[in-house]
Structures
1.
Amino acid sequence: MARANSRRTSLPHASCHARRVLPTFGRLALGVVLLGAGFGHFANAEAFLAQVPPWMPAPEAVVAVSGVVELVLGAALIIAPARWRPAVGWVVAAFFVIIFPGNVSQFVTGTSAFGLDTDAARFIRLLFQPVLVVWALWCTSAWSQWRESRRHVTT
């Protein structure tokens, strides 16, 4: 019976530990993804050009600048002190919103890149952009901090 009780008392601690570890892992993973994408802008610029809408001027510059931004944001997700992480999360989420027209353009123009060679694949890719926004807000505690600040305003 004592063994069952010890398991019960360790569950809240395990839950608390998971609440810290999962967002940290998610933040580091998103940082690595952004770093990889940022480097990819320079190693495989042709593929990233497929996402630049035709109405954008200087597509090569757009690819280069967005690559630098992804490198900076990826590094910030990994090394920013805890007090800055919510702000980084909002900036990363905003970046994902800002680049969404590129994904829409790739779908609308039917441009193949990154293995997205069918309309269905390009459409499914569109559905992942909101996931990236939520991921950035969750793993940096930006969303929970905002909710907490709203709770203090209303009370």
2.
Amino acid sequence: MKSSFAGILLTVWCGAANAQLAEHVDRIAHDALSGPSAGMSVAVARGGRTILARGYGLANVEDSVAVTPETVFHIDSISKNILAAAVLQLVDEGKLSLDDDVTASLCNARMIVPHLATGYAAEGGVLTRAPFISWSLAWSAGSVCATATDLLTWEAALDSGRVVPPETLALMRTPTTVADGTKIDYGFGTRLGAFDGRRIVGHTGSGGGFRSVLMSFPDDHLTIAVLMNMDNPSQSPLAVAAQIAREALGITPKPMAEQPVPPEELAELAGVVFDSDDGHVENFAGRGKAALPRSGREVRGRHAPDRTVRIRRP
């Protein structure tokens, strides 16, 4: 009897927590779509179970088609995570070598994909259709289409060993060692990182008027997918996912702290030193103060007044 009562209390508490999270997600999404914008799909899972799936804004602006949880998006470079798992699956089966040359085409722009959102770009504060690209050329960098809940299902299948065995999944999530011995925060089709001391795996994507992020916290059993059909640097799916993660995990945002940057390190940052789905980091002549920026803002070295680092999106 006591255990049944405790189970009822737990169910009620989880329901209330999920409802509160949904309210926070609604607010975050509303803020993210406050400027020139199209639409966004958000899905959240705990312990492999979807607890939230919502659509916001428009999948097609011209025809006023709303985004729903069933809206399909080009997921861009998140495709790399799926392709990497498929390749490693074939390697485990002895059907492929990691040194083989393979070619494929999945979600091509000429295919008819039901519920597929239209990609947009913001130019001069005006929303326009993104220029046409051939998704067959993008291949693993963007050839897969999915809903936000599809990505939650994919991540749950990975974590449960239904796609590849645990040892292969661990390989996907192991930092890569490049030719000079340097380890980078990227495994097989998987970005690796940390958020307030918590381990993160997943991937980001952008291109063709779409931006996306799949963010998973393996140790906290939390997965977040955010898909947008607009290429606007001021509206970042990664920033949206981070805000949702803070709410879901009870993380209080920390104030940004200035950090001294040794001049010899800044001196090595000449030109474009980082290029990813999230943009380029460039080194400019500057004024001398350190801070981690948003896109378009500057990072300046306090001890190197003649050096400035600026984040610029393509």
3.
Amino acid sequence: MIFNSTTYYVCHFRILYLVYGCSIRAYAVKTGELVNEYEREEGKLIGVQLHPVKPEVLVACSENGELIQWNCNSKLPTSVVVS
């Protein structure tokens, strides 16, 4: 896997979460296999982080300033906060 200077990612135990346009891709660190993809309808994502209190929740930031949350067990966003 090759990363460029505009790639945003976070690694948590065995999963690497990588921002890819309007989605976050989850890869198994050990095998490199794509294990999940968290998508949204529109708006480029510019960052990703695991929730500081709930490690099962991914939080992403869009270029519009929205915060989008996904439960790691679901492919659909659980909430969107518009700034």
4.
Amino acid sequence: MHRKQAAPQRIDYTDRAYWNGIIKMSLSKFFILSVLRRRPMYGYEVAREVENSTAGCCSPTEGTIYPVLREFEQGGYVTVRAETVSGRERKIYALTKKGRKAFSVAADAWVEVYSFVRASSEVPD
């Protein structure tokens, strides 16, 4: 029995929503590291701080925030400790020295990319 494969979805590169999605996906990890530089936080708090600090530009959901935090924990970029608040256990995430280094490297990379994006957008059509 042969199954017919679905045709690949075409991407509209003129659609700003496409580019916004790509940029936001890329920046989520950066902004998670950024807010954790301020202080340790639990997952939901990290998501809200990212959303607030980016004026809503980057709004990670539970489906995206927790896999990233797990990835950071497994890589040694954050530590996790349990804390009970009002009878509920929360995982508190804190940036490690390696996590601070990762943020610094990411910030430098984004600044460099931004300068190239800025320069290329100034070229007349």
